[in-house]
Amino acid sequence: MSLKIISERFRRFAIRECRGSSELYEQLSLNVAEDEEILRLASAARSGQPIPNLLFGAVHYLWMQALIWPEHKERRELFQKAARCLQQTPVRFIEGDGIALLPNIVATIPEDTIICVFHTHVANQIPDKAKQLLIKQIREIGQMRDIFHLYNNMWDTKLHLDYFIDGIEHNEIVAETDGHAVGFAGSLITANLTCPPRSLPPLNRV
Fold first, then answer.
1. pLDDT number for residue 205
2. Cβ neighbour number for residue 123 with a 10 Å cutoff
3. Which of 185, 98, 115, 189 is nearest to 149 (CA)?
4. pTM > 0.70
5. Which of 122, 124, 175, 195 is most deeply packed, by most CB within 10 A?
6. What Pfam families does the annotation carry (predicted)?
7. β-pair type (147-151, 184-186)
8. Cβ 162 vs Cβ 138: under 8 Å
9. Over the Cα atoms of the chain, what is R_g?
10. Sheet harboring 147-151: ordered strands across?
11. Average pLDDT of span 18-36
C-alpha cells in the first residue's frame, strides 16, 4: 500500500472518528499523516486492518511495557497475561476526568448492583484536592447506595478498602503492597470485613 493512501487513512481517521471524541488522537493522526517515517512503519500492517488503531494500540502497549523495570521478568510475564485477558474480556473505557465523571457514571448503573471504584498507583498523580473530592463523592454516593472503594497510594502504600453498606461507612486495611506491583502481603479473604451476612448482587466496576 502506498504511503499516500496510508496518509489519507490517518487524515480520515482524525476527521471522521476522532474529531469531537478525542482531541489527542485527532492531532496525533493529523501529524502522523505528514510523517513519512511513521507512515513507513505503519505500512507493515496486514491488509484490511485499521492502520491508525493498530499503530496507536501498539504505542500504548510498548509504553506500558517500558514502565516495567528491566529486571522484573515476572511482572512483564504477568502484564502479558493481563493483556491477553483483556482481549478475551473487553472493558468499556470512558475518556475524561474520572473523578469529575464519577457521579454521572454512577447514575447510569442499575440500583440492584454494587459499585466498585478501584485504582492503585495512578493515585500518585492525583492532586491532594482531587483526592479529597473523590473521597467526598464516594461518601455522598454511599449515603444513597452501596459502594466499595479499593485503592492504595492515596495516603500510603497500603491497600485500603472503604465501603458503604446500607449507608454505614466501613474502613479496612486489607494488604501491604509493593511499590512496583511485585506482590502484596495480606488477603481480602482474611480481612475483617463487617458486611451484614446477606447475599450481595454482582459488582459493577467503574
1. 43
2. 15
3. 115
4. no
5. 175
6. DUF2332 (PF10094)
7. unpaired
8. yes
9. 21
10. 184-186, 168-177, 158-165, 147-151, 114-119, 203-205
11. 92
